[in-house]
Amino acid sequence: VLDAVITDVNKLGLFAQCGPLKVFVSRASLPPSFVYQDDSAVGCMTDGEVELRVDSDIRLRLLGVRYDSMNLFAIATINESYLGPIHHSNLGGQGNAALFGSLGSSDFAASQSSPLQSPHSPTL
C-alpha cells in the first residue's frame, strides 16, 4: 500500500506518481461508483461526493510492478477498504495527539517518553 499523487486522469483510468514509481489504476480497479467527467479543463473521476483529479493524493495497493533500466511502472487498485483519496484535515495545532484520539493525553505523552523504547523503534 502506497500513497501517491495523481498526475493524469482519462476515461481509461488514472496515473499517479510515488517517487520514481509511475502507477496506473484502470477503470476496472476503481470503485464502480466513480465515473469520468471530461467537462472541465482537466478530466476527473467522481462519485458525486469525492473527486479524483490531477494533484490529488491517493492511497493505493500495488497489483504488479515492471521495471527496466530506466523506469519503474506498476498497476494498482483503489477498490478496497481504506484505499482511495486521502483527505488532509487541519489538525488545529494539536499535532500528533490529534492523530491518536483513542489514546488519552497522558497515554500519548507516556508513549512518547517510554524508557523501554528501543533507540531503533519508530517514533510518532
UniProtKB/TrEMBL annotation:
Residues 1-68 form the S1 motif domain. InterPro entries: NA-bd_OB-fold (IPR012340), S1_domain (IPR003029). SUPFAM superfamilies: Nucleic acid-binding proteins. Keywords: DNA-directed RNA polymerase, Transcription. One of its GO terms (cellular component) is DNA-directed RNA polymerase complex. GO terms for molecular function: nucleic acid binding. The keyword Transcription applies. Gene3D superfamilies: Nucleic acid-binding proteins. It holds the Pfam family S1. This is DNA-directed RNA polymerase II RPB7. It comes from Toxoplasma gondii TgCatPRC2.
